[in-house]
Amino acid sequence: MNDILIQNTTNFFCEKFGNEPQKIVLSPGRINIIGEHVDYNDGYVLPAAIDKVICFAFEKNNTKKSKIFAIDLNEEFEVDLTQPILLSDVVWTNYILGVIKQLQDNGFAFEGFNCVFSSNIPVGSGLSSSAALECGTLFGIKELFDLTISKVDIALLGQKAEHWVGINCGIMDQFSSVHGIEDKVIKLDCKTLEFEYHNANFSDYALVLFDSNVKHSLFTSEYNTRREECEKGLSIIKNHFPEIKSFRDCTENQLLSIQDKMDKTVFKRVHYVVKEIARVTQACEALDNGNITVLGQLLFDTHDGLSNEYEVSCAELDMLVDTAKKEDVIIGSRLMGGGFGGCTINLIKKGYENEVKNKFSSLYLDIFGIELKFYDVKIGNGTSLYKPNTK
Ligand code: ADP
Ligand code: MG
Question: Atom of ligand 1 at shortest distance to CA of 131?
Fold first, then answer.
């Protein structure tokens, strides 16, 4: 699937700069199987890199300037590496400037390069094309100039670059883009960055994302409120159970025993969090045992929690998951990401994907007047060099 992308990117580079590229880098987007809204609540997440990538072609240009061309936008920019790096008005350039700035600020020495890139990751749909852009640029510069940077540091520098752009993201996106392994999910502790891989063989089921094509503006304000509510809930839990240091130490029974000590809304929020943290571990067990129907049910449970207790869903996402529940060939579905729009992630029995897509498209169009989009995804490798002869 990525062969055409790689070929086009390479051809474009050759035409633009008159040489073959010295390095070709593929940097993937990511999904999160389960573990939603728990990264900032001391929980675990279960992401994976996907087979949709940004392809970059690089060469050194023996100057102190870098030229970068975004093929998909037909836009380019030049940056003088001897001058202070400042935010620009052109958003996409900032992710690259941010990466350059982070490398410079952390003492990595490199010189001018030429780069072109093109992507098949849907942009702005929650598959983290921004992390792919940061990690791919970092990886390419590391490879061109023989810099010693670990995978974890690429993820951390990418995250800092995104903060510099103005998005206060956690570490999951960059971490999964860099650490992905084909057919494996990553159980990641976002706090300590400890992680372990679990085999993700979905056997007879395909992963399909349904893009609701909506983005409700509630996200930022509600996100901040959720964080406050969870902090409040945790302090009440700690008062009653001094041995509990964070949500991951709290059982559902302990929480239920002090339900009347907190207001209803705070209880609902922390009830979701405690159960979701447990679900990530249950999901790993289900994968280890090859029990995909159990995994599917956990996805439905997560959605119920996000919709009714954490209250970060919306009519469009609820309709997609409620409809999925009624389909025998869909064994799991939930909203993926922060909520209030974006995609649902679905496990669909192989062979029925087209039937399901047709049915959902027309239903969704009828009810909301909006086109539903679909992305078939497989779990792929993390950011890496493309070596033509080995493929
Ligand atoms: P997401 O990461 O969920 O896809 P974001 O809004 O975080 O959405 O990041 C998308 C931004 O990343 C785009 O607005 C653009 O600035 C940059 N970007 C992603 N892919 C490309 C691309 N192929 N070409 C140019 N810029 C891109
Ligand atoms: Mg992003």
Answer: 2
Query: Of 42, 51, 173, 304, which is the active-site residue?
Result: 173
Contact (CB, 8 A) for 141 and 161: no
Picking from 352, 353, 372, 312, the residue whose alpha carbon sits closest to that of residue 336 is 312
Q: How far is the CA of 222 from the centre of ligand 1 (A)?
A: 23
Question: What domains lie within the chain, and their CATH numbers?
Answer: 2-200+380-385 (3.30.230.10), 205-377 (3.30.70.890)
Strands 47-60 and 23-32: antiparallel
Beta bridge pairs of residue 384: 26
> 32 CB less than 6 Å from ligand 1?
no
Q: Cα(375) to centroid of ligand 1, in Å?
A: 16
The CA distance from 50 to 360, in Å, is 23
Q: How far apart are CA 75 and CA 117, in angstroms?
A: 11
- Residue 389 is predicted with a pLDDT of 63
Closest Cα partner for 97 from 66, 61, 142?
66
Choose the residue to mutate in 52, 130, 375 for probing ligand 1, maximizing ligand atoms within 8 Å of C-beta. Answer: 130
**Please, which residues have CB within 8 angstroms of residue 164's CB and are 6 or more apart in sequence?**
87, 94, 98, 101, 102
Tens of pLDDT, residue by residue over 231-260, are 999 999 999 999 999 999 999 999 999 999
Q: With a cut of 50, which residues of the chain have pLDDT below it?
A: 390-391
Ligand whose nearest atom lies closest to the CA of 337:
1
User: Is any ligand 1 atom within 6 A of the Cβ of residue 130?
Assistant: yes
Using CA atoms, how far apart are residues 333 and 71, in angstroms rounded to an integer?
34
Active site residue 183: no
123 CA to centre of ligand 1 in angstroms: 5
Our separate counts of H helices and E strands in the chain read 11, 13
DSSP E strands, 33-191 = 44-45, 47-60, 65-70, 75-80, 113-119, 184-189
Distance separating alpha carbons of residues 58 and 139, to the nearest angstrom = 11
**Bridge partners, residue 381, by sequence:** none
For residue 352, how far is its CA from the centre of ligand 1 (angstroms)?
A: 31
Q: Token match 């992680």: residue?
A: 195
pLDDT at 176: 98
Tell me, what's the pLDDT at 391? Answer: 44
Q: Give the C-alpha separation, 80 to 64, whole Å.
A: 6
